[in-house]
Amino acid sequence: MRILVLGGDGYLGWPTALHLSDRGHEVAVADNYARRGYDHEMGVESLVPIEPMQVRLDAWREVSGKTIKHYYGDLVDGDFTTEMIADFRPDTIVHFAEQRAAPYSMIDRKHAVYTQQNNVVGNLNVLFAIQEVDPEIHLVKLGTMGEYGTPNIDIEEGWLEVTHNGRTDRMLYPKKPGSFYHLSKVHDSHNIEFACRIWGLRATDLNQGVVYGQETPQTVRDPRLATRFDYDAIFGTVLNRFVIQAVLGHPLTVYTPGGQTRGMIDIRDTVECIRLAAENPADRGEFRVFNQITESYSVGEIAKTIANNFDGQVEIEHVDNPRVEQGEHYYNVKHTGLVELGLEPHLLSNTLIESLFEVADKHKHRVDLAAMRPTVNWRKASNPMRDEK
Ligand code: NAD
Ligand code: USQ
């Protein structure tokens, strides 16, 4: 297949592009390098150094003999997006290219507006381009489990059969997201479902849980192929942060009360889920949703698992929760769709955690401890203009 990976320079987009290329697909990546820009803005860096795109592509050609094509541009520019899709003529578009940090979207008005504009407009441009260039193209879109929030009923895969006043209908599952970022994904899902309904597009919305891990069989083939490993309080995700904190002797920062539970997935399963979704496309007119998680853990359980596996002292600190989220709640997620397509999950294991400790230990000299503490408060969006007055 010809597969275009939007956001191909990111934490997940890059290893996905390699995985798909390794499987014999014709792959192109596109990115505007906004993610590298947020690093500059926030004064942080990936713990594991990452190479510029050209170096990454040359390294992949050297180790695999395969070429990945590259487009540089912004999805918010609709002409660029349409021209790129018309030029590459993919069978499948994998869309990772969004601002993906909940805390970043909660900094202030500017960051919330940027996040929703970037994500919602970029995704709309992709939908219009598919409709214009070739409605047969299958869109595989990265959504998030956080679209659902933590409802007090079972979470189904995207759709819910509702009986009301004696009548029954199949409806999009109700959403109760927890940040302006997570809301942008809800808006995307609605726009995609609408495009499938009115234009007959085909789409798979992957509601992915929190990803952990840093290595895939392809990225370990050369240090120049490494993907990002973020640990700061804005872009670092919880399990990756706890691993790095343990290695540094920093207390594990469990936001109170620690009972908040999330679906999780190993990065090796992320790339495999994308392959499975791409190779088994949705039908024309179908808005197909999979919940892309393999297990659920509370934040407190994750901290204990990391602490128990670490060969040394680990302190667990209960930090005043900067977010507004339920701390104790029901959480039961259906996630059978991808397993039915053939996913064989890597469950969280001691071996994986130990290999992550090794990665963190090798690069620990690069850590800036000042980036570890949360700075963004959900309850009070700061407005720098107003604060300066
Ligand atoms: P990332 O920030 O590392 O990668 C996203 C890439 O998209 C970046 O390289 C960025 O420069 C690019 N990008 C952003 N806006 C763009 C635009 N307008 N035009 C072109 N390129 C643009 O994020 P990630 O962790 O790799 O996540 C990828 C996707 O998966 C996101 O959509 C995210 O919401 C979703 N997701 C991630 C996780 C996780 O734990 N990392 C979990 C669930 C879902
Ligand atoms: N948390 C802590 N301590 C920390 C960091 C986080 O207790 O040091 C807690 C948070 O309060 C939250 C949970 O861990 O309850 C998850 O936080 P996170 O930062 O790991 O993940 P989140 O903000 O939800 O976002 C990440 C990705 C995002 C993706 C989402 C999947 O950044 O792109 O969409 O995971 S999900 O959570 O399923 O929505």
According to DSSP, the number of beta strands is 14
Number of helices: 13
**Fraction of residues in helix:** 25-40%
Q: Strand-residue fraction? A: 15-25%
Oligomer: single chain
Number of domains: 1
The rough form would be described as: globular
In the CATH hierarchy, the architecture is: 3-Layer(aba) Sandwich
CATH topology name, in short, is: Rossmann fold
**Uncertain regions spanning at least 5 consecutive residues:** none
In words, what does this structure look like?
The model has no long low-confidence stretch (mean pLDDT 97). Helices cover 38% and strands 19% of the residues. The strands form four sheets. The chain has a seven-stranded parallel beta sheet with strand order 3-2-1-4-5-8-12, sandwiched between helices. Strands 9-11-13 form a three-stranded mixed beta sheet. Strands 6-7 form a two-stranded antiparallel sheet. It has one domain (2-377): Rossmann fold. The N and C termini lie far apart (56 Å). It has helices at residues 13-22, 34-42, 53-64, 78-88, 102-105, 109-133, 180-199, 238-248, 267-279, 299-309, 337-340, 350-362, 384-388, and strands spanning 2-6, 26-31, 69-72, 92-95, 138-144, 159-164, 167-172, 202-208, 210-212, 252-255, 261-266, 287-292, 295-298, 316-319. The protein has 13 helices and 14 strands. It binds nicotinamide-adenine-dinucleotide (NAD) and sulfoquinovose-uridine-C1,5'-diphosphate (USQ). This is NAD-dependent epimerase/dehydratase family protein. Belongs to the NAD(P)-dependent epimerase/dehydratase family.
